Known about the structure:
Structural class: alpha/beta
Shape: globular
CATH superfamily: LmbE-like
CATH class: Alpha Beta
Amino acid sequence: xxxxxxxxxxxxxAHPDDCEGYAGGTAALFAQLGHEVTFVNLTNGDxxxxxxxxxxxxGIRAAESEAAKAILGLTRYVTLDNHDGELxxxxxxxxxxxxxxxxxxxxxxxxxxxxxxxxxxxxxxxxVQDAAYLVMVPNICPETPVLRRNPVFLYMQDAFRKPYxxxxxxxxSIDAVWxxxxxxxxxxxxxxxxxxxxxxxxxxxxxxxxxxxxRIAAQRYVFPITGSVRDVLTEHYGEAGExxxxxxxFEICEYGRQPSPAEIRKxxxxxP
Length: 272
């Protein structure tokens, strides 16, 4: 990591909207500071709807991703050509991830943990962590320049407890960009305004206006600040950490580079 260049951050989400929901606020803060953020959808989202499907739905989800990109100030938004609900931690997927991490010279890589209700989340997390060491092996995907320094890999927060619960090592206050995060999530109107309210059976509680419905629904899928996340916030922000209302938290993956506390401050320059 050079002090003279922007940080390169890649966030891998299983579906369009996952990156925004798990790390949209932190991404917006990185972008505001002049760093380069890439969101990667590991699937095209072509199955997650009760009325739409296939190419039509994938096209809608792609347009929503572009809208979220503009809201957050992302450098790029990439969608891989994998079907929603069919993601597997294959050799091909692993190699795609290795190439992306190398081509963008990642300093930080964020992804799902491999413990989740959704198989796409689980297998996406496995595929990313399987790539963590291989980005430094020249004979793997030799057509892309090998990285000489392993990125720091982090898991995004979830609420699952088995086989072990999420353990926060980094917590970022997103109070300053809370409305930006919500707007980026609500840009995925087919997800937050239509599909999730239908599958979770609360569509009748939402206003008729689709944009307003998506914004209200998006707030249901944001993690509250747990006691362990609050502890990390106070470590980072001191007494101010006690008053943070909205935060995003991350767990350092054991398979990538293990950063010191000082390096964490450099990798997350929005921390005080």
